Amino acid sequence: MTPAGEQVRDPGERVRDPGLQPERTRLAWRRTTLSCTVAAVLAGRAALHQGPTVPGVLACALCLLLWLGFLAVAHRRMVALSACGPRTLSLGTARAAALCTLAFAVCAAAMVF
Questions:
Q1: Which H helix or E strand runs over 3?
Q2: pLDDT digits over 3-25, tens only?
Q3: Which residue of 11, 45, 74, 79 is 20 to 30 Å from 31, comparing CA positions?
Q4: If you write DSSP's letter for every residue of 7-21 in order, what string do you get?
């Protein structure tokens, strides 16, 4: 007999007490998303500083698309961390986040030069 509310588990299954780690990770994703938002806004401002030109508008559009992609990846991860037993970060999600970050860096370098 088990106490009320306790789940019966296989004897070989590892029980993990995540503690506050999922919450800290969720907050880190929120801070990263905020930083990405600020970077996208500043990039758009810098691209349109001399007035709306075709390359400036294209750079703003690209920054907006990258920001939306990163926002979608971060939101999906934060929702996954809200579950009772959060899953580990999938390889596809990690690649998407890294690709968005790398693309932002390339856009920044292109704007500087």
A1: none
A2: 554 455 556 656 555 677 778 88
A3: 45
A4: PP--TTSPP---TTH
Tokens found for residue 77? 């991860």
The secondary structure of 35-91, three-state, reads HHHHHHHHHHHHHCCCCCCHHHHHHHHHHHHHHHHHHHHHHHHHHHHCCCCCCCCCH
pLDDT in tens, 32-50: 888 888 888 887 787 777 7
- Contact between residue 63 and residue 104 where contact means Cβ atoms under 8 Å apart: yes
- Looking up tokens 């294209």 gives 58
Say which residue the tokens 């030069």 belong to: 113
